[in-house]
Amino acid sequence: MSYFFPNSKNLITSAYISVLFLYAIFFNLSYAVIDNDLEEIRELARLPNFNVKLQTNRGNTVLILAAYKGHIDAIKELAKFPNINVNLQYYSGRTALIIAVSEGHIDAIKELAKFPNIDVNLQDNDGFTAVMEAVYQKNVEAIKELANVPNIDVNLQNKNGCTALMEASSQGNIEAIKELAKFPNIYANTQDKNGTTALMFATRKEEVDAIKELAKFPNINVNLQNKNGFTALMIAEQLRNIDAIKELAKLPHINANLQTNDSFTVLMRAASQGNIEIIKELAELPNIDVNLQNKNGITALMLATHYGKTETIKVLSKLANFDVNLQDNNGLTALIYAARIGNITIIKQLAMLPNINLNLKDINGKTALMYASSAGDAEIIKELAKLPNIDIPLGNDAVYNK
Questions:
Q1: Which of 32, 52, 212, 329 matches a 20 to 30 Å C-alpha distance to 118?
Q2: Which residue ranges form the domains of the chain, and what is each CATH number?
Q3: What is the pLDDT of residues 177-236, one digit of tens each?
Q4: Shortest CA distance to 326 belongs to which of 287, 292, 288, 285?
């Protein structure tokens, strides 16, 4: 006894001995659980004043140990203890249920789910619930089992705002998505802290099959925007994923005219890149507006012109209500852009478009011809000068200084 209390016998009080006694029982019970020794568990349970809810300084309980080991018989035996608390949490915030899920012990999950007052929605320190852990571990059988637990909330979010469905979508885990779809009150439009939805996660990871599966969810909203104003469609365009664009385009009420925080539409972004296959796909979307302007008044046509995308201009010019004469905040038209950068191929292309106004002036009063003249580009001056209905100023052979 002096080994434990070297300084004073007076410290050995009955209360202190009682505490030591309880912890000795606890540790003996822990070893019995680890060994799945049911007889020892039963013997220890008969001892007076035993507290099955005791925890180590790291929050470990005998039930958590049994769940970790997947010892079904031990869990069943512990379930008989008065006042057993299935919801106690380990230092990481994990419950016996979350740990059983993490270790893939399906039978343990089934037994723990039978405990009265089990709280299946408890979250660990990272905000993970049992169902989130099941998805993270790609354990579809665990997801199925958890669906049967009363009052489960599949829409809870972890500390980053992610749901179980977002994780499954990011993984491209089709079976998990299908199982989550069966949960009562599943909501597919939740957004994380960055405004990302399950549909955006699937798109970002280029999981086209996941997009197809999410499209089956009732009331799926393809038009939600993240913190940067990007939709799933914009993300697909950014990744140049034509298959994802095709799937997203099938969703009802898709709006291709939404603008990012810097006021670009998906068509503007595609026009600047000149990916003709994507632009053709976007051109098929209902109510696409080719004339939308960003905060600087720039259109998809102006961007295509600036970057020299002749095929893009061809596709854009065939869209409904196409207006070649729109001007940006500085009064520049697509034709003026072409003249300023000296692209004679695009000047010829734009000049052939119906209803083009060759004489529009920017805020400085300069036309496309004037810009070509100030640059001294004889070939472009000649090309513009021969166009019908162009105004050619008198004097100095229409060569203007800046």
A1: 32
A2: 1-153 (1.25.40.20), 156-235 (1.25.40.20)
A3: 999 999 989 999 999 999 999 999 999 999 999 999 999 998 899 999 999 999 999 999
A4: 292
